[in-house]
Amino acid sequence: MASYQTVYEAIGGEQKVRELVEAFYPRVQAHPDLKDLFPADIIPVMEKQYLFLTQFLGGPALYSEQHGHPMLRARHIPFPITPTRANAWLQCMEAALDEVNITGLARDHIWNRLVMTAHHMVNQPEDQE
């Protein structure tokens, strides 16, 4: 019988997802296009991201168990997500993936899904300044 390994398992499970979240959010908080979208107390946001990424990568359905269906686009409607902000988010995530050394096929799979998700989250055009 062939064994199947999820991306979550392939990257190292709980520990690696926590490392990724911890590498990601300082970048978000420092990014000029993103920092104003997040609260000063980032800990609850980090915990939700941990729960979500665990589930998103094939681990236990922690996010759904605690918060219901992710409904990402609907949950993010209150926040002005422009193409620039989606790309900034991806830049922060790419650097976090590098920092925690997620590589190879697992990295490619994660990255492709995150790119699609980030672009799906765009809910308004660029700021008209």
Summarize the structure.
The protein is mainly α and 129 residues long.
Number of strands: 0
Helix-strand pattern, N to C? HHHHHHH
Low-confidence stretches: none
Can you tell me the CATH topology?
A: Globin-like
Percent strand equals under 5%
Shape: globular
Helix content: 55-70%
How many structural domains in the coordinates?
1
Supply the helix-strand structural class: mainly alpha
Task: Give the assembly state of these chains.
Answer: single chain
CATH level-1 class: Mainly Alpha
Mean pLDDT: 94
Total of helices = 7
Distance between the termini: 60 Å
Largest sheet: none
Radius of gyration: 15 Å
CATH-level-2 architecture: Orthogonal Bundle
CATH superfamily: Globins
Pfam families: Bac_globin
GO molecular function, one term: oxygen carrier activity
Binding site for heme: 119
Family: Belongs to the truncated hemoglobin family. Group II subfamily.
Please, could you describe this protein's structure?
The chain has helices at 7-11, 13-30, 43-56, 62-67, 72-76, 83-99, 104-120. It is mainly α. The chain has a single domain, classed as Globins (Globin-like, Orthogonal Bundle), CATH 1.10.490.10. Helix 2 (13-30) crosses helix 3, helix 2 crosses helix 6 and helix 6 (83-99) runs antiparallel to helix 7 (104-120). The mean pLDDT is 94.
